[in-house]
Amino acid sequence: MLKRIAMAVALLAALNCCGRPQASNDTVFVSNEAGYVTLVDGATGKIEGRLATGARPRGMAFSPDDKTLYVAASDAGRIEAWDVHSHDRLALYDAGSDPERFAVSPDGSTFYIASEDHSAITFTDLKTGKITHEVRVGPEPEGVAVSPDGNLIVATSEVANLAHFIDARTARLLDSVPVGSRPRFVLFLDDGKTVWVSSEQRGTISVFDAATHRIVKTIDLTKSFDIPEPVQAIEMRATHDEKRVFVAMGRSNRVAEIDPATDAVVRSFPTGERTWGIGLSPDESRLYAASGLSGTLTIIDLRANKVLRTVKLGGRPWGALAAPK
Question: Looking at the whole model, is its pTM more than 0.70?
Answer without folding.
Answer: yes
